[in-house]
Amino acid sequence: MSALPDPARATLTTDPFDDDKLREECGVFGVIGVAEAANFVALGLHALQHRGQEAAGIVSHDPADGFHSVRRMGYVRDNFTSASLMESLPGPLAIGHVRYSTTGKKGQTQIRDVQPFFGEFSMGGAAISHNGNITNAEALRRELIERGSIFQSGSDTECIIHLMARSIQRTVPERMKDALRRVEGAFSIVAMTRTKLIGVRDPLGVRPLVLGKVGDGWALSSETCALDIIGAEFVREVEPGEMVVIEHGELTSHRPFAAAAPRFCIFEHVYFSRPDSILGGQSVYTTRAAIGRELAKEAPVEADLVCPVPDSGTPAAIGYSQESGIPYAMGIIRNQYMGRTFIEPTEQIRNMGVRLKLNVNRALIRGKRVILVDDSVVRGTTSRKIKEMILDAGAAEVHFRIASPPTAWPCFYGVDTPHREKLLAATMSEEEMREHLGVDSLRFISLDGLYRAVGEAKGRDPARPAYCDACFSGEYPVEPADMIEKGFTLKAAE
């Protein structure tokens, strides 16, 4: 396996606007059976950039000279565009990964933690990319180290490589099945051997994974929007608990896990996925607009304008406006050229905070009663700053409407969430949050309302919820073993 040296880069600091958002997990993509597969993967990763901005990597295989790998810190567009670099990733088979760290030192990704990971086994090499989080990774890591394994990264994904290496099965897919039966938590995986592209989802299907056809080849992706960018045809979702293996143009399906009721992450509908993707056969944009309409039914208020907090609040704000009859307006304008991270040269610039990314349309806002629609409230710091900007622009009233229930519990399935005591909804009632934010009114969509918006007509069935909604309900479909060992208290034990 060859790798190019990592160039020196300026230190990037997270945008304060994004500091108050739940972090997207990661994105995975793979292609087999096309010339220059790595170029397709780079395009796919670019479409999945919203799922992780810290680092990206691609591994390819060429029958003539084996595996090749390039891993880089930063954006796909800044690293995987030069012809010479892409020529170093030849072959008709490649996989890739975009990363935001959810394990190890959060926000401090090191090049050794960047995926895809590669390993040489007795039957040949294999590379693996993982979206999700292994909730028993620390226990597995201790066991593996005691048995002689030597870890090279701080990533939970490396546990899978070591478990595969210790399996006595004769093929990579069979070894992967062995390994994943030991793993708890959430995982959507895209992996490769010299001749195979492999995709697998955990039994609950918490994180997304889709299958596409590109010419005579195949593609696997976290979201359908990345299939669109390479001109691939969306075939279907990889089902919860399913492993697909593609070799020589043929796909086989395997069921390595015991059957379980699916619990897809409901927050993928609210925020994580791109609005032009398809989840569960339905447009994400359409679902978010439906969330806004449901929110307008549950939490009406007299006002002059409905304004989104760009960009994630836009579809819900449109739906709220449609249902309420209150005009939709772009009351807040986003600086499209700033990106999701920026270099902070001075304390003065740092203190500008949200204003570097968002600016109020003063002529539109002055004297108006404004409904601001956002996707979530996490710490509440950004919401307070946005409210101050709206009032400074002369708004008569500010009403927040939130297109998700209160986020009161951390996620342990591949989303970087603050500790529970840092979540505003974990320590305050809705009225206390309203007073803390200093707004005229604050309402969240109910959990039942969110379920209705995503297609569950009767709302949430507490006995058999159709989604993973642990960040709202505190009900974890897979117990977070590592976190419980560290002292985390489940809702039932409070």
Walkthrough of the structure:
This protein has 494 residues and is of the alpha+beta class. The protein folds into 2 domains: 2-265, Aminohydrolase, N-terminal nucleophile (Ntn) domain (Glutamine Phosphoribosylpyrophosphate, subunit 1, domain 1), CATH 3.60.20.10; 284-459, Rossmann fold, CATH 3.40.50. The protein is 28% helix and 25% strand. The chain contains 18 helices and 26 strands. The strands form 7 sheets. The protein has an 8-stranded mixed β-sheet. It has a 6-stranded antiparallel β-sheet with strand order 7-8-9-10-14-15. It has a 4-stranded parallel β-sheet with strand order 19-23-24-25, with helices on both faces. Helix 5 (158-166) packs across helix 6 (172-180) and helix 9 packs across helix 16 (447-453). The longest helix is centred in the middle third of the chain and has 15 residues, at 284-298. It starts with a strand and ends in a 9-residue tail after the last helix. 51% of the residues are buried.
Summarize the structure.
The protein is of the alpha+beta class. The chain folds into two domains: 2-265, Glutamine Phosphoribosylpyrophosphate, subunit 1, domain 1 (4-Layer Sandwich); 284-459, Rossmann fold (3-Layer(aba) Sandwich).
